[in-house]
């Protein structure tokens, strides 16, 4: 036998060892989706983003077993769970749930139990526009102003190249957006006329405030937090 054929025989023996059946798995898993339920139908569809926060696994008496993060694609997976019944859930505080926030699952050896969690946040959206006639209302012929910066605390953002901004899937809180007017411009008068087309910035402190609340399990949406700018 050459050294090559000896190596071949040894490799064959190792391959045979590899065919020994594995012991029946002693654990199972829990997986599912934790997502922002954009169309509020209680089910995940492609394009609905991950819910961000963690998913927890607990014994039926409430004692903690494991916590895993939610992936950006909205999936989560809790591996190596000993067989039995468990509570699995997310922290619902600050959001409108579109599914139960906690369910009981039965984990079987080698099996995968599924639990999905959908929730709805608030979309804070608006535009910055040139209030040409300085009346505090956005008329159809008044142009949007692109790339106007604003700050939320120490986090910088701004309207995009078309004059729009969007902060989707926000939980309950008070959001203070501090806008920075361009050179030679100031803010329109605040809260004059129809709210869909008025200006929401305080001309003195340059801030617009969005208050997201949950009332009777329903979260409020904040469309049209719009900012009018006038020529000085
Ligand atoms: Ca959905
Ligand atoms: Ca106007």
TrEMBL record:
The keyword Signal applies. Residues 127-228 form the SD-repeat containing protein B domain. One of its GO terms (biological process) is carbohydrate metabolic process. InterPro entries: Ig-like_fold, SDr/BOS_complex, Sdr_B. The keyword Signal applies. GO terms for molecular function: carboxypeptidase activity. It is found in: Secreted. Coiled coil: none annotated. Keywords: Carboxypeptidase, Hydrolase, Protease, Secreted, Signal. Its main location: secreted. GO terms for cellular component: extracellular region. Residues 1-25 form the signal peptide. This is Carboxypeptidase family protein. It comes from Saccharopolyspora spinosa.
């Amino acid at each position: 036998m050459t050294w090559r054929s000896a190596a071949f025989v040894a490799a064959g023996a190792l391959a045979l060892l590899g065919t020994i059946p594995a012991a029946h798995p002693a654990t199972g898993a829990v997986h599912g989706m934790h997502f922002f339920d954009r169309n509020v139908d209680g089910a995940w569809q492609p394009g609905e983003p991950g819910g961000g926060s963690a998913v927890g696994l607990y014994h039926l008496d409430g004692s903690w077993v494991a916590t895993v993060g939610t992936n950006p694609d909205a999936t989560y997976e809790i591996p190596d769970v000993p067989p039995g019944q468990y509570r699995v859930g997310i922290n619902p505080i600050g959001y409108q749930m579109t599914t139960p926030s906690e369910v009981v699952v039965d984990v079987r050896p080698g099996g995968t139990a599924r639990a999905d969690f959908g929730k709805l946040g608030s979309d804070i959206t608006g535009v910055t526009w040139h209030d040409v006639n300085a009346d505090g209302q956005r008329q159809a012929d008044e142009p949007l102003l692109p790339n106007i910066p604003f700050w939320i605390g120490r986090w910088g953002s701004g309207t995009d190249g078309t004059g729009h901004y969007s902060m989707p899937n926000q939980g309950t809180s008070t959001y203070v957006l501090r806008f920075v007017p361009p050179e030679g411009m100031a803010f329109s008068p605040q809260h004059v006329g129809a709210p869909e087309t008025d200006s929401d910035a305080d001309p003195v402190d340059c801030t617009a405030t969005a208050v997201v609340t949950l009332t009777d399990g329903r979260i409020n949406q904040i469309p049209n937090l719009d900012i009018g700018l006038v020529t000085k």
